[in-house]
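Table S2 (text version). Query chain:
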Amino acid sequence: MIEQQHIAISDFSYELPEERIAKYPLAERDQSKLLHYSQGEISNKKFADLPELLTNKELLVFNNTKVIQARIEFHRSTGARVEVFCLEPASTSDYESVFQARGSISWKCLVGNLKKWKEDKLEKKLTINGAAVALTAQKLERLNDGMLIMFSWTGDYTFSEVLEASGTIPIPPYLNRDTEEIDLSRYQTVYSKHKGSVAAPTAGLHFTPQILEKLRENGASTAEVTLHVGAGTFKPVKTEDVADHEMHTEHFSVTLSALKMLQRSSGNIIAVGTTSMRTLESLYWYGVRIVVEGEPHWEKAIQQWEPYTQIVEISAKESLNAIISYLESRNLSEVSASTQILIVSTYQVRMIKGLITNFHQPQSTLLLLISALVGNRWRDIYSYALEHRYRFLSYGDSSLLLP
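Corresponding structure-token output:
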């Protein structure tokens, strides 16, 4: 039985003046403000203070996904511009191999100015390592949320090399500006590794190697997960009742070694960003599947209302133990799965004790997620941030939420 959560999205609105949206990053990553919410108290800090605020041997969990240069601009012979925005590969079972593909590959894409794309194929001239390369985009079929596009190219180059030569970093649409040189490095975390996202896990943009080292010196440990952030992260909730909103699906992977770190630190985990939290909470429900059904069914995404369909008395540690035992008994080294989970105010958070995150748009699924952790206090937190002139959204300031 599907237990949709009937919540009025208008209850998650607040006034966000345009001038409070950070259009560019600060000169130094760790000089952003940090709102510290701990046991109901709110205070103003600098992000560089974070290591001094986490001294209880917490495990910080980072999303190590890497943003790809997903926007490719083509021009017809008439001069008309057509933009192809790569969302995700047609086959997402192995992201690493996708970017190593040579010759051709199919992607699910959004197409800007589609009505101008009259011919079957569009071509773009590139230069890779000084050599001329021809990139072709061919429409294969319409999808519910875009178009299936076949990319093909000349020369013995990987799709990763082709994207880097042809595409641009897709900064958030609400910045209302074109991608600039600074975005190539600053719309990427310092620990990014695995290509696949079309949006940055922005809570991580504040971290520097020095901050990470200081955290470890103060007793904290770190683990990494990979969730490839989709364009759906910017999808507004357009229905008054959240129950009628369709949540987007994102793909993630977690290694066995990371799972064991999570198991050892259960109850003392800080998620760095909403994407890390989404990954961890989805993991919990895969573990529940194993306990209840004997199988995780990795091929079936955690559905957006699945966590609300049953009352379970399974602890986070028990769920993780089930996943670890399942992997080890089959000689598997990682979880590779997907999630459509929609975390709202009625959700019971299982896996984390705190969250590091930026400030999110009104009436967004990300703000709903925050309310699951801090309840109605999100209003006090956001009012404080606005009153103290915090910068909002992707390039904005940060918060450490410890309810």
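Notes on Table S2: The chain has two domains: 9-66+185-402, 70-168. The chain is about 25% helix and 30% strand.
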